[in-house]
Amino acid sequence: MTRSNGQAWCVWLIGCVLMFGCATAQADQAADPPAPPNIIWVMAEDIGCDLACYGTPAVQTPVLDRMAAEGVRYTRAYCTSPICSTSRSAMMTGMYQTSIDAHHHRSHRTDGYTLPEPVKPITHYLQDAGYYCAVGCGYGAKTDLNFRVPKGGKPVFNGRDWSKRKAGQPFFAQIQLKVTHRGDWWNKVTAESPDPVDPAKIQLPPYLPDHPAIRKDWAMYLDTIEKADAQMGEIFDRLKKEGIADHTVVIFIGDNGRCVHRGKGFLFEDGIKVPLIVYWPQRVKPGAVRDELVSMIDVSAQVLAIAGVEAPDHMQGRAFLEPGVEPREHVFAARDRWDEVIDKSRAVIGKRYKYMRNDMPQVPYFTYHSYLERVRPIRPLLWELYKAGKMTPTQAHLMHPNKPREELYDLQADPWETKNLAGDPAHAETLKLLRAKLADWETRTNDHGRNPETDKARGKKALERIAEREAVLAQPGKQ
Predict the structure, then answer these.
(1) What is the CATH number of the domain that holds 246?
(2) Mean pLDDT over residues 416-445, rounded?
(3) Beta strands in 359-473 (DSSP E)
(4) What is the C-alpha to C-alpha distance for residues 279 and 301, in angstroms, rounded to an integer?
(5) Counts for the chain of helices (H) and strands (E), in that order
(6) Which residues make Cβ contacts (< 8 Å) with residue 141, sequence separation at least 6?
(7) 292 near 350, Cβ under 8 Å?
(8) How many C-beta neighbours within 10 Å does residue 218 have?
(9) How many Å apart are CA 203 and CA 180, to the nearest integer?
(10) Same domain, yes or no: 293 and 360
(11) Are residues 268 and 359 located together in one domain of the fold?
């Protein structure tokens, strides 16, 4: 064999070896693809964007700040409803609650209502893809859905902790941080805090009178956020201890806005705008801050995308982190019956302007509501200040006996929504455009709010509370 022939043979042999090696590697990859990541979706109850990383003074949230620094933080994320059960029903399906007849708070609890075909909980798609779906995992396990799964059918969740999954099985966990929800524990949280928030250092919104009791109430709310931040630290510590932190996507949101005056239950920013932070190692740019509009039903679609599951065509959410997905031009939100308060309002939010339509303006914003009378201690004080004429026009807006039929706000110039531009001729075209966008959305998504709610859907408890409210409102001086 000549030298040149020998060299040619060696080159051929090496080429064969390399080709065989590549083919073997490709076969190994085809036979053993990378395991899908675990997914944890944390819903802190009743909070707004009141974290240090969002610029809120006086509050300390080091864990969530670090999560944002290592992940991506969204500044314009919105719930589809300002009330827990309706918002959660939307997120669990990736559908507007108004499209699936789940838009009234805690409706369908006793009438056996199931989701319309082909809608089903996102956890069913995840289970079909091999995921173990857990709820709670040592924290809140509330689902609070306005529908049931068919009797004998697939459960919404497989169990209460991801430790119950099979070896090597990916998991999806939904965790509720209840501490931020209004409750008797707020006093305990503040009492046990090693460094409670100083009421003198907080920034009150302009729609609240600057009163010591109101400052204290807001400071206690921030104390619960600091406690929730510590709980997030516990969750991350567990992931690191189990060696799965780098293979787990963590999503942090609020299930609806903060439970303070003009927050939870209303379509103002305080009721529907929530934090959204995504920690996704090796996938998202650390420290990124995004200002595009995101709806919470988009998080539902994104969860499926993370798991490698193609979202069904009927799903109204869109996977906002995936390449090529167009950002939303508008997001939509709706308020309907909340406990015994029968009401109907709709909102559309664009890049700058927000339009709200109140279909029942005769129902006051600050009306009698047994739940709020129990859990919001500053309500009597607000009535006292209003009746004494000690409120500015901005502060008195929610106290009037009627709501405006339409509201339009410039969120850039007026982020606290204190100046209604609906009657301003200079904004007539914007009003007309957003009015049309909302009407189109109602038709396109089949808004069930156009149909009256049945007594059967309300259930016996809701009917009793409605009757109680009517009796209270019949008394002189009640709103």
Answers:
(1) 3.40.720.10
(2) 98
(3) 406-410
(4) 16
(5) 13, 12
(6) 135, 160, 176
(7) no
(8) 23
(9) 18
(10) no
(11) no
Token pair in block for residue 46: 């009743």
% helix / strand / coil in the chain, to the nearest 5? 40, 15, 45
Asked if residue 20 has pLDDT above 50, the reply is no
Interstrand relation of 406-410 and 353-358 (parallel, antiparallel or unpaired): antiparallel
d(CA 366, CA 384): 13
Cβ–Cβ under 8 Å, residues 412 and 430? no
422 inside domain: yes
Pick the closest to residue 38 from 235, 171, 174, 237 (CA basis). Answer: 171
Distances (CA, A) of 354 to 82, 345, 361, 419: 15, 13, 18, 12
User: What tokens does 44 get?
Assistant: 């802190």
For the cut 60, the answer to whether the pLDDT of residue 127 exceeds it is yes
Residue 79 in tokens: 């719930």
> Can you give the residue range of the structural domain that contains 387?
345-473
Distance of CA 250 to the CA centre of its chain: 14
pLDDT digits (tens, 9 = 90+) for 228-272: 999 999 999 999 999 999 999 999 999 999 998 899 999 999 999
Q: What is the pLDDT of residues 29-51, one digit of tens each?
A: 445 567 899 999 999 999 999 99
Token pair in block for residue 452: 């009256």
Say what the pLDDT of residue 27 is: 44
Question: CB of 79 within 8 A of CB of 333?
Answer: yes
Beta-carbon count within 10 A of 431 CB: 19
Lowest mean pLDDT segment, chosen from 60-64, 150-154, 196-200: 150-154
Q: Using CA of residue 363, residue 45, residue 164, residue 315, what is the dihedral sign?
A: positive
Q: Tell whether 27 is covered by a domain.
A: no
* Res 32: pLDDT: 59
CA gap 464, 321 in Å, rounded: 45
Give me the half-sphere count of Cα atoms (radius 13 Å) on the Cβ side of residue 259.
25
Q: Among positive and negative, which fits the CA dihedral 18, 21, 23, 26?
A: negative
Do 282 and 426 fall within a single domain?
no
Instruction: Locate 119 and state its tokens.
Output: 């809608």
- The yes-or-no verdict on residue 394 having pLDDT over 60 is yes
409 with 461, same domain: the answer is: yes
